[in-house]
Amino acid sequence: MTTTTTQLLSYDRTLGLSVMEGRGFYYPADTVIGDNGRLYVVNRSLESVDRGVRVTVCDLESEYYGTFGAYGEGDGQFIWLTSGAKNSAGDIYLTDEYLHRVTAFDSDGKFLHVWGAHGSGEGELDGPCGIAIDPDDNILVSDTYNNRVQKFSPTGVFLATVGMGVLSMPWGITVAPSGEIYVADWGNDRIAHFAADGEFIATYGEPGRAEGKLVKPAGVAVDTDGNMYVADWGNERVQAFDPDGNLLQLLRGEATLSPWAVNFLSINREEGEARSRADLERDIDFFDHDDPHEVSSHIEKFFWSPMSVKLDGKGRLFVTESNRHRIQIYRLT
Q1: 217 φ, ψ to 5°?
Q2: Burial class (CB in 10 A: 0-12, 13-18, 19+), 14
């Protein structure tokens, strides 16, 4: 289902399969788009399921290259993975909300270094939920429970604070092609916009379920024209806005089966046959059609917990959808 004022995005394909280990995703929270054509999918898993925590490496054609990282508190391990970003060398930086730290790997998944300390002082973190890297390879971290963004050197040396007094529980963050900073201001139901030096510029959006409004936005991406793409997590949708915050397009999700899912159903024939007979858009009596969570949880093609949006620089938007363990991909038209 698509509501449109401007036809900016069109559905392309779906990636993913729900598995705790190996080829697939398990409650993914973010996707890092590598320079090598590979996708690094950040699997948060569930709090009670240790073996789902990992980074799955695949590509746009569903080729699988393995995993790295694991549950734990040692080097290269995680408890609650939340987000990822890459630097100019292709190294992957990942945030851990529980351990309050940032871990870096090279593009092959080799552990490089880890830093971070729990607290509210300069350079300390409390539940980091978002990360982005600027053109100078400095690292911006959404320091969620401290209600700020902090800027670090590539090795974790504190440089500056952004957004104090503006942000409430910031989540996803991006550095636009212009170098400006955009933050999914989760607690304020809006997007916050800052200059490259951290000076506040504007906010976009207000709370609500109507088109163009936001409820607990989790991620934001910005294209070369300044258009914003928002993972409107609390409304189970993605919305596109122009540089002034005017709605361009609203997406509910159009997922089809991924190649991994097609393969699974061809092997597990009973499940495949049962699915082929099912009405996947049935109007169930107990639906509350005014509750986006209720609708999304019952209609397979719709977004269910869209946690991240990323642009790949080649005209594609990647929507990481946690509760259905997949990525929906759209083309900018």
Answers
A1: -65, 135
A2: buried
Residues 169-214 have pLDDT tens digits of 999 999 999 999 999 999 999 999 999 999 999 999 999 999 999 9
Q: How many residues are listed for the chain in this entry?
A: 333
**How far is 138 from 63, CA to CA, in rounded Å?**
31
Q: What is the pLDDT of residues 222-277, one digit of tens each?
A: 999 999 999 999 999 999 999 999 999 999 999 999 999 999 999 999 998 998 88
pLDDT at site 225:
96
Which whole-number Å values give the CA distances from 320 to 243, 265, 309, in the listed order? 23, 22, 6
Of 324, 310, 301, 323, nearest to 251 by C-alpha is 301
Choose among 97, 22, 16, 32: nearest CA to 52: 22
Distance of alpha carbon 31 from alpha carbon 127, whole angstroms: 19
**Residue among 241, 232, 248 at smallest CA distance from 304:** 232
How far is Cα 220 from Cα 111, in angstroms, rounded to an integer?
Answer: 28
Question: What is the residue-averaged pLDDT of the chain?
Answer: 95
Among residues 47, 18, 41, 13, the alpha carbon closest in space to that of 29 is found at 41
Taking residues 271-290, what's their average pLDDT? 81
Q: Identify the residue whose tokens are 């993975």.
A: 81
